[in-house]
Amino acid sequence: MHVSANATESDCPVWVPDPAGLSDVELLLDGAFPCLHGFLAADEVESVRNSGELPDGTRWPVPIVLEVPDDLARHERVELRDEEGAPVAVVDNVSPWWDGRAAHLAGPVRPASAERGRTLRTLRPPAPAVRAGLPPGPVLGLAPQRPLDRRRLAQIRHLCAELGATVLLLPRLTGPRPQALVRATFAAMAELPGGTTVVPVPLRSHGDGKRDELLAAHVAAAYGATHLLSEQVVEHAPIPVVEPPEMARDQADRWRPAADVPAAQRRRGLDEDELSERLAAGKELPGWFASEPVAREWSRLSPPLHRRGFTVFFTGLSGAGKSTLARELRDELAQCDAREVTLLDGDVVRRSLCAGLGFSAEDRSRNVRRIGWVAAEVTRHGGVAICAPIAPYGADRADVRARVGEVGEFLLVHVATPLRECERRDRKGLYARARSGDLPQFTGVSAPYESPEDADLVLDTSRLPVRDCVAQVLALLRERGWVRPWT
Prior knowledge:
This protein has 487 residues and is of the alpha/beta class. The chain folds into 3 domains: 14-118, Sulfate adenylyltransferase, CATH 3.10.400; 123-301, Rossmann fold (3-Layer(aba) Sandwich), CATH 3.40.50.620; 305-479, Rossmann fold (3-Layer(aba) Sandwich). It has helices at residues 19-29, 42-51, 127-133, 150-163, 178-187, 209-222, 272-281, 292-301, 322-336, 346-351, 361-380, 394-405, 419-425, 430-435, 466-479, and strands at residues 14-15, 38-39, 66-68, 77-81, 87-92, 97-98, 103-105, 107-111, 139-142, 166-169, 197-198, 227-229, 241-242, 247-249, 255-257, 310-315, 341-345, 384-388, 409-415, 457-459. One of its GO terms (molecular function) is sulfate adenylyltransferase (ATP) activity.
């Protein structure tokens, strides 16, 4: 989001990075990237990508960069704000660079103010403060991306006993429900060694599994870990990487080193597919797999399909029947599902959320992407969003699908009623005005409509009654498990 028109008192333009960019900003400010003072310049990025080192020979695994619009990269300083508009940091843009695709800021990053209110700020002291507060001796670090099940907890206890170490847990503040992972981590405290320290960190993926795990080792070391527990082999890590020992579940449902449990006495655990199926179906996790407090938070982190939020996105020409189908679907869901439904009809949204937008290609895109933002928020919080804009461009629909898909489920329905039928139904005379040239940017006549090739369902309201069309949408929702069948 570019808001450089609103300058601060120092006449510093403003930029709101995406959540991934904000995560990197927070880690820079917290001292979790100890080799870096800010975003990398072009020569530093090239060096890291080619050799895994900064130009001075310091090992560093991942380029930390910030992409911005071209005009912002030409300023000496840029203020960074979070999604709520609160100042977070200022970049002294000493070495901006362009790569043919985008512009990037490069230079030192400093706090915008003494008080920063990012996610779970009170639980996140700076890395030097955490490091100074750890007891002397070995510290086993772990950056979990999911709740700690009893097998993993047994591995941690076993390694701590071997190393004589305390534990430093750095649960990752990423994904749609980061707070749930933090709660799940604290829920496991009773099963962790005494003196365990928990510090949530906004450590995200940069798209390369091996380099991401190497970055996790650097971050863990910055917070004071002397060893990192990891499933992967991590080369050139700043601290020793310890592979978790193989554990087995015995006849008493305890997790012990596999060498201590005879093969004939071992019981099966849950593989990843079985775990996913249990969570999706809303089944309880067995006590030998996770304690009740951890299992409860696990279910909140990954709720059953019939409790997850979802979006149904109708697209099609004006007059295709989108609004009618959306209203009918809303009424049907009200009878068979307890989730709150938000209807984002194209005409209604134009009068409220998107008031002031015109019908240029740019404004059409803004209209659809605003709808997508609201739909994603409804979905994130476990509700149902039913959208019915024309949404003529594939790129905008893909943006909405990706945004919603990060937090819940998404269904694209192409209401493919033929243009001739849409014109016949036109009570407002819009098509006639478009044909006469009075409406120069009317979708289907004087502006393009890109028919979706990725629709989950295609309906033609000239061939099927509305009730039958809605029945098909409901059948697909039930088939996917998002809505429970009638009982």
